[in-house]
Amino acid sequence: MSIPSDLDIAQAATLKPMDDIARQMDLPTEFLERHGTDVAKIELEAIEAMKDRPRAKYVVVTAVTPTPLGEGKTTTTVGLGQAFSHIGKRGVVAIRQPSMGPTFGIKGGAAGGGYSQVVPMEKFNLHLTGDFHAVTSAHNLLSAVLDNHLYQGNAAGLDPYRVTWRRVLDVNDRALRNVVTGLGGRMDGVPREAGFDITSASEVMAVLALSNDLGELRQRLGRIVVGYTPDGDAVTAEDIHAAGSMAALMRDALKPNLMQTLENTPVLVHAGPFGNIATGNSSIVADRIGIHSGDFLVTEAGFGADMGAERFFNIKCRTSGMSPDAAVVVATVRALKVHSGNHKIVAGKDLPPALLEENPEEVHAGAANLRKQIENMRIHGVSPVVCINAFPTDHPSEHQAIREIAESMGARAAVSTHFADGGRGAAEVAEAVAEAANEPSQFQLLYPDDAPLREKIETIATKVYGADGVDYAPAANTSIDLYERNGFGNLPVCVAKTHLSISSDPKLLGAPTGWRMPVREVRASVGAGFIYPICGDMRTMPGLGKNPAAHHIDVKPDGTIVGLF
Amino acid sequence: MSIPSDLDIAQAATLKPMDDIARQMDLPTEFLERHGTDVAKIELEAIEAMKDRPRAKYVVVTAVTPTPLGEGKTTTTVGLGQAFSHIGKRGVVAIRQPSMGPTFGIKGGAAGGGYSQVVPMEKFNLHLTGDFHAVTSAHNLLSAVLDNHLYQGNAAGLDPYRVTWRRVLDVNDRALRNVVTGLGGRMDGVPREAGFDITSASEVMAVLALSNDLGELRQRLGRIVVGYTPDGDAVTAEDIHAAGSMAALMRDALKPNLMQTLENTPVLVHAGPFGNIATGNSSIVADRIGIHSGDFLVTEAGFGADMGAERFFNIKCRTSGMSPDAAVVVATVRALKVHSGNHKIVAGKDLPPALLEENPEEVHAGAANLRKQIENMRIHGVSPVVCINAFPTDHPSEHQAIREIAESMGARAAVSTHFADGGRGAAEVAEAVAEAANEPSQFQLLYPDDAPLREKIETIATKVYGADGVDYAPAANTSIDLYERNGFGNLPVCVAKTHLSISSDPKLLGAPTGWRMPVREVRASVGAGFIYPICGDMRTMPGLGKNPAAHHIDVKPDGTIVGLF
Question: Is B67 labelled a binding residue?
Fold first, then answer.
């Protein structure tokens, strides 16, 4: 079986006019704001206009703890969205917009792959309608107003050594991680240590993803904490008079982007917050539209089920008030074999040949991870469906092994060949999802708003990650006390840890037990609405490799982009 | 006479559908790429499709040496564009996209004013279709690839102390002028002194403005010089394999943006290169479309006639091969009175009362500047028309004084009330322009491509600025020799000097003589295609003031932006 390249498949696609895509969603075309032929923004008035329509089943796609290669969560999300039309239902997909930085770094697309892609992929991967640029602009305007505030007399009384707000750019640039700004002389600002993160790590991005409407976006931007006074009182974007301008820059970015899959399934592409220090989920406003646009709204949550799905439940759904009906846990033969502890995968290198040999016992040996992630759905009261994402190198006995693991947990399971076959290949998964979503919803949040921050952290660590407990570094304790004293104790918690293990140690495979989670420091995204403990080395500005994609991408005089994938 | 605020006028405007605007230009609507209701990009295929259509008269709008408040060049450009419909002709306007940085700095719009504005002004001033963001992205991708090149072994042999490429952001942020990057440790890049300019100062912006088509844009990006080897050999964006990716990021930005004036005159808004270190003119591709879209294409050149218009002729027209038919020199009573030397205007403060008293003699006393700028049009063989931009505080005798000065030079002159009256108020100017443009074209470049760089600089200094000669600092001589040795000697020259005097000394009013121009250093925009000698203190990253517009702009829950003007 030979599948053409993603680019070849994408460029051979027949796209439908956006009006037709909107009609499939029962979305009146008057709400479309066109951005070229194949992309439209949706006016937020659509939310109010559609709110009395029937409600779709709300399905989150998550995964076992992935290998460094990823296990095909985006392709599954796109493929499953396409699959519903093959079982007589209407599916709508909601996914994150990818960051442009990594597009020019490690070769590889974010639009899905094979016959499960979002098109046109050049638009999807480059600029789209400029929402990331709006985030960059709003974020850095706040940075400029902040440094100007220090320069013009510091009326808010900020402690220059306790400024927490950095700058952002949507580029992989390690040289910007740690910088000194304000050099040059008396007219050139106040010298201080500073740094840049990638735009997807901006709190403004998380605000975009977690706002229910424009008024709330405006309020959240105002609540962003930029630093503290010497007495430990938070200073906000509102305090230094930057939030209104930020909101003006973000106004149009809050409108979700409408695209389509290769099979013309509607796709809402909106926001792209980081998956470790932020929620790793697409926007609430997109889901508020998608939930009234079909029979099934399929949305993806970043990284494994302990990460993205947990935040989907306890941060995104808590904030939106929306309740999920089913969770798809993507599992691969490859990942479970790696969780057996017998293999090591390194990104950019060939797979070890032993990994490709038929070995269902090894799949069973790595079952603990899948079991725990299924359980992680159950503790939130959400019905899990295991999607066995088939690779050409898999063997039927290995798929059967995954099916047995799932069924031993009482979970539905189905093999999916959406990469090779498009929506048709995910039809069996779609049937299983439809059944699971029809069970009465038992959805529950893991902890109440008013639990103390340490209790929230410990609840996630013990119940979701399987830790025995949590150890706080002194700096972490100081920060938690500071946040609770400033009134931030009622926020949910987003644990920033590795995505390569359910534990906070990337080397621990399977479902580690008998470990304690070390919290090195704790930071606050007060505007976005969460506190994030740092458990490990979190990189918020990637670098470029020795031979990055940036060296190979080009554009022909006729406008064709080459080398993007 | 009381005129409503710019914002009130703009929000009361009745906009026509973009299809109607295109039809006014005989532009097939199939070439429109829609970006919301009131903005469209124009596909570049339109250039080929329209090239055999009748050619419009090509009119550049320039000005006397302005006061710090500006003399209404943009309002005149917009008003004159509108005026042609009042004399039975079709006008099209081509102007620069404004930078967002100053929008949040000093309060004041860039969309024209009064009844001569481009609408919708919120779109015009914020993001538009993201072209500036594309420039920021492409520029900073090159920066990242460059620092990565140093980090990964420096195969091109760059001298880290001779890196000339900086970074850019579209924000007024003085703290970014001088920074140290690459701090943190072994994994965080190579430490070095660096800095940020505002996006409009990016060479990529100048490339956007000066490319005739996408293939040429790609080539120009490749020719950008990022630094030098220890032996003084230039290292380019092509050498470090970044130019293709930059072109991919810039592909859609090369399509000009179509908007309209309050009177529904078509406006091409495209590119916004700095007026001192770059050309200060809008894009060639926009003009290549506009020149076949009506009877008159009216375009604005930044700053006074010694600056923007000189570059319009000797850089933009040299590069495009297009030939201007008339030049409008905007003059105000206020500016000529200031050139008399009797008054001083400070931005942000009230005008001195004595300036507002009826005093035609004082206008005559400041005539030298207008005479010299008229002469500066003549030495390029272009017919000048003096537009007397009327202010409510002017007196008829003062307008008459300007008319006498113009006519003593054999130039046409007319009073314009476009601010208060829209296009109707500029009808007399439009008639004069139509007459001037009907004279046989005598257009000539000031110097040939193959003149040595020093000769080019001296030609501009003596013939346009009225200097006795040029003095080069040692660093300037070194750079000129370096550029000529690297094969850049055939490029035109863009003298970076103050816009507040025809001389390089901002304090010298009128038409200074008996002075020599000091060239402190010389830089090269090899990709954009010009060499720029620095004659004075050029600031390429503005700062915010004590009470910037950023503190007052806001957005209401219904999406209305307030405080923008």
Answer: yes
